[in-house]
Amino acid sequence: MTESEARRILGAVLATVAPEADLDEVGEGETMQEAMDLDSVDFLNLVIGLHERTGIEIPERDYPELATVEGCVAYLTSASA
Amino acid sequence: MDRQVIHKPVGVGETPNMVDYVATRAAFSWDAAREALAGLPGGRGVNMAHEAVDRWATGPRAHVAALRCVDRAGRTEVVTFAELSNASSRLANVLQGLGVAPGEAVFALLPRGVTLHTVVLGSLKHRAVFSPLFSAFGPEPVRQRLALGSARVLVTTPALYRRKVAPILADLPGLRHVLVTTATGPAPEGATNLDELMSGADDRYVIGPTDPEDPALLHFTSGTTGTPKGAVHVHDAVVAHLETGRLALDLRPGDVWWCTADPGWVTGISYGVLAPLLQGVTSVVDTGDFDVERWYRVLERERVSVWYTAPTALRMLMQAGPDAPARHDLSHLRFVASVGEPLNPEVVMWGDEVLGRPIHDNWWQTETGGIMIANYQCMDIRPGSMGRPLPGVEATVLARDARGRVRRDQRGDPVEAAPGAQGELALRRGWPSMFRGYLGEEPRYRACFAGDWYLSGDLVIRDEDGYFWFVGRGDDVIKSAGHLIGPFEVESALLEHEAVAEAGVIGKPDDTIGEVVKAFVTLRHGYEPSEQLRLDILGFARRRLGPAVAPREIAFDEHLPHTGSGKIMRRLLRARELGLPEGDTSTLESSR
């Protein structure tokens, strides 16, 4: 998976969890939860959606790596490599 | 009924504050408990903030850590009792300088952290009424509460200001000052820089005379219908915060306390801020979000000894498996308690097996101000039960008629349910942290009482040994991740979407967060159900209400069930959702 594919998938899953949120509003280093006003249940649903969409197993201990947009994209691309 | 019991060993480990529940209960009086308060110097009354910080600020605990604030990166900032006392005095002087009068309302829309503690305590010192807002609220719930509470001052962060306050500022003419915590740069348009005001303020403040019955805290909660209700608590509630910390949570000097509740809700103030300070113990304040690994790390590194958390979080930890706790040294942990929604027995047992400590469920509400029914350190646990009433609190189960109202005898007095029978949990009025009113809504307040009994709205069973067991809510209020959500508030927001003609909102049972908010909507003529429209309505509701209140699921339904008078029958919607026979809704109350 390329970075742009990963970002597109993230955007697609986000649109089902929090349709009002906009990935482009998240600055580098900012957590998605804070920047887009997601709560922890949203975040969990986001991770579950990413797993369902890509088949990538995401264990709990890796969740912090997915907190930012760039972290999420990097995780998906390396996990699918 | 579950008959599993976790027995407490006798004579092993430290002696709890309460050794014998029955004897303590028999000897207890609130008047005697009040003698443990310091009181304002010169007999000028009782003020929560004096009891929480000022009384320690000049004694041997002055330089003990009151707060250990852990940031996202794991760095810890220590604030001593003396420093917290000084900071809250500066805040009180800031309020004074802004012309805030005692009795006026100061709101905070803040995450956990030193500022929140400072604002709570500074407002109390100034004898203003402090009211917290949940930072996962959207602009509409924020606006509604600020308006209902006649907010004079709001303290928030620049980011929350931009997203949730600026859009509604024009609708709040009574809100005179919005203070934002900005260490760098000017405050945004419409707001004032709190840090600048604080740096120019004196750190000495003499608390004015405070009658124990003076209002201190305003906590909003939700009912089945109508607007949110503002439960008013007085300074005397501090006695209950003190005693529940001692008896129900077994707090004592030298403890490290961690309450994970958000300060936007009553638990985050009564137990996140006040109770540990009243005992003079150190609180861990974690400013990060929930994360399994982080949480175990905080427990280990901060050497947390008493931990107060919530079923949703505990269930998430349980689902994450035993590997994470096994990697951490949790040997400092000696007491774990939970509140917010009923704790299922599996989680109590999981705590016993995996954390090495059983989890002590307890029960209380916004209106009760503090813990009312609990599992205590000295008492065997019956997993799944909320425990027994606090010493000083009389609880009972009242019988209900077919329409869900408390049954009365010929004299009009409420009738108690037979032992083991389901009924409404009620508390005899008179405990210090009982709410003294719903702001501006006397009829709604009166409706909460039957004679001397406060009606909780929760349906319970009491077993033959006096343990209480939660059965379900007696109304349509939704409990999601420990937060009460009024279906009416959600329905009203949905109706503002151009495509929505009607909406019915229910709590759908969920294994992790208790209930999820689910909305059924009927579309206006000319609109067709589609996935795109569903997401559009979902996004619309989330923007207005915020993630904590907005529905997580929306379904189109062209045939919402109505009563004869045209009201949507949420109970029937819930029956449909659960696949129960629609004609028989009597089992609904036990369906969670």
Q: How does this structure look, described?
A:
The complex is a heterodimer of chains A (81) and B (592). Chain A has 4 helices and no strands. In chain A, helix 1 (3-17) packs across helix 3 (40-54) and helix 1 packs across helix 4 (69-80). Chain A has helices spanning 3-17, 32-35, 40-54, 69-80. With 81 residues, chain A is mainly α. The mean pLDDT of chain A is 93. Chain B contains 18 helices and 27 strands. Mean pLDDT of chain B is 93; it is low at 584-592. At the A-B interface, helix 3 of A face helix 11 and helix 17 of B.
Strand residue percentage of chain B:
15-25%
Total individual domains of chain A = 1
Largest sheet of chain B: 9 strands, mixed
Strand arrangement in the largest pleated sheet of chain B: 2-1-11-10-12-13-14-15-16
Oligomeric grouping of the chains: heterodimer
The rough form of chain A would be described as globular
Characteristic terms for this protein:
heterodimer, A: 81 residues, mainly alpha, Non-ribosomal Peptide Synthetase Peptidyl Carrier Protein, Chain A, 4 helices, B: 592 residues, alpha/beta, Rossmann fold, Luciferase, domain 3, GMP Synthetase, Chain A, domain 3, nine-stranded mixed β-sheet, 18 helices, disordered C terminus
Overview in brief:
The complex is a heterodimer of chains A (81) and B (592). Chain A has 4 helices and no strands. Chain A is mainly alpha-helical and 81 residues long.
Topology:
The complex is a heterodimer of chains A (81) and B (592).
Chain A: H1 3-17, H2 32-35, H3 40-54, H4 69-80
Helix pairs in contact in A: 1-3, 1-4
Chain B: H1 21-27, H2 30-34, H3 48-57, E1 65-70, E2 76-80, H4 81-97, E3 105-109, H5 114-125, E4 129-132, H6 139-148, E5 151-156, H7 158-165, E6 177-180, E7 192-193, H8 194-199, E8 215-221, E9 229-234, H9 238-247, E10 256-259, H10 266-278, E11 282-286, H11 292-301, E12 306-309, H12 311-319, H13 323-326, E13 335-338, H14 345-355, E14 359-363, E15 373-374, E16 388-389, E17 395-398, E18 423-428, E19 437-438, H15 442-446, E20 449-450, E21 453-462, E22 468-473, E23 478-480, E24 483-485, H16 487-495, E25 500-510, E26 514-523, H17 531-545, E27 553-556, H18 570-578
Parallel strand pairs in B: 1-11, 3-4, 3-5, 5-6, 6-7, 10-11, 10-12, 12-13, 13-14, 26-27
Antiparallel strand pairs in B: 1-2, 8-9, 9-19, 14-15, 15-16, 17-18, 18-21, 20-21, 21-22, 23-24, 25-26
Helix pairs in contact in B: 3-4, 3-5, 3-10, 4-5, 9-10
